[in-house]
Amino acid sequence: MRGSVFVFFILMVAANAAYLNVKEPVPYEGRLENDTIFIGTAGPGQTVYLVAERATIDATGEKINYVGWDTLAVEDVPPGWIVEDSPLYETPMKAKIRIAADAADGEYTFKAKAVDEGSYDSLGNLTINVKVTVSKEVFSIDVSPYEVEAGVGQPAVYYVDIENAGAASDTFRITSSGVPAWTFKKEVLVSHAIDVTSPARKTVTYEVVSEEENRIEMTLNVTSLSSDQISKGLKIVLVAEPSLVSDYKATGHGLLVSPLIESPIYSLIAFFSKLLL
Predict the structure, then answer these.
(1) Where are the alpha helices (DSSP H) in the chain?
(2) How far apart are CA 109 and CA 133, in angstroms?
(3) How far apart are CA 213 and CA 149, in angstroms?
């Protein structure tokens, strides 16, 4: 009998206790004091935003207090990590955690504390444990097609898929190496994954131009702006061939040898190629 009463008392306390609803990067509802949550994987140098609602049960435990918590603080982070607590009364609360650029792969734990400023709502503070895995393997890439044919001086277009399986949204820079005099860079923001089984995905185009006729094996690189350690590369091929359009445009640069009588014709072709092509 006493055991049943004790269990009933514990359940009543839990039902009336203040709670914390975490919304991002992974949703967790009704977290209580000293609960532990896992927010996924993030790379060294990346920034994770921990987002939580201000709403909780009021001091009487009878109804929801929609502005109960006033700020979300982050404590006990590993050395070299940088944190910013959520601004006072921000809705929802967003705390910022930047992982150290030299953080080794592994699992880390820190604390997130929901604060009732001045305890005006008689809530006090509520602290939970937050676990995150640090790894450089937080995204994957794919490129299609593997081989593209284009005219000399014309863009070869590749479709680059970036899948972000991490807890941090990040900007990635796309570059290529192996094509002479081609240094084009493209940056793309990819949101964080809400579910580790469903990475966030973004597809963008990337162009490469060769000014010489050749079959070029090159490398397409995708690198996080947060850390050079978070990077991947794929081998692709560009086949640059002469085309009628590129030949027309080339006439505008002059001809090495041509009969004088044909010069006006070539000049006319060059003019219309620049105007229309």
Answers:
(1) 2-16, 244-250, 263-276
(2) 9
(3) 11
For residue 25, what are its two tokens? Answer: 């990067």
- Residue 234 has φ and ψ, to the nearest 5°, of -135, 145
Residue 33 burial by Cβ neighbours in a 10 Å radius (0-12, 13-18, 19+): middle
Q: Provide the token pair at 126.
A: 């509520």
> Would you call 184 helix, strand, or coil by DSSP?
coil
| Rounded Cα distance, 140 and 161, in Å | 8
Half-sphere exposure at residue 31, Cβ-oriented, CA atoms within 13 angstroms: 25
pLDDT per residue, tens digit, the chain (277 aa), is 444 433 333 333 444 589 999 999 999 999 999 999 999 999 999 999 999 999 999 877 778 889 999 999 999 999 999 999 999 999 999 999 999 999 999 999 999 999 999 888 899 999 999 999 999 999 999 999 999 999 999 999 999 999 999 999 999 999 999 999 999 999 999 999 887 667 899 999 999 999 999 999 999 999 999 999 999 999 999 999 886 555 554 444 444 444 445 555 545 555 555 555 5
Q: Which residue has the tokens 């970036």?
A: 162
Helix (H/G/I), strand (E/B), else coil: 234: strand
Residue 202 makes CB contacts below 8 A (sequence gap 6+) with: 161, 162, 164, 188, 189, 190, 191
Q: Are 187 and 170 in contact (CB under 8 A)?
A: no
Question: Which residue from 170, 46, 171, 56 is spatially nearest to 96, judged by alpha carbons?
Answer: 46
Q: Which of 41, 213, 40, 209 is nearest to 137 (CA)?
A: 41
